[in-house]
Amino acid sequence: MRDNFLRGPSSAGDWVADGLRAVGVLGVIGAAIWGSLTDAGILAFVLPALMLPRFVGARSGFDIAFSITVLIAAWSNVWDLYRSFLGWDTIVHLVCTGVLAPMAYLLLARLRIVPAPAESTFLRRTAITHSALIGFAVSALWELVEWVGFEYVTEDIYTTYDDTIGDMAAGGLGALIVGIAFAWRPFAFERYRSTD
Question: Which stretches are transmembrane (predicted)?
Answer without folding.
Answer: 20-50, 62-79, 85-107, 127-145, 165-184
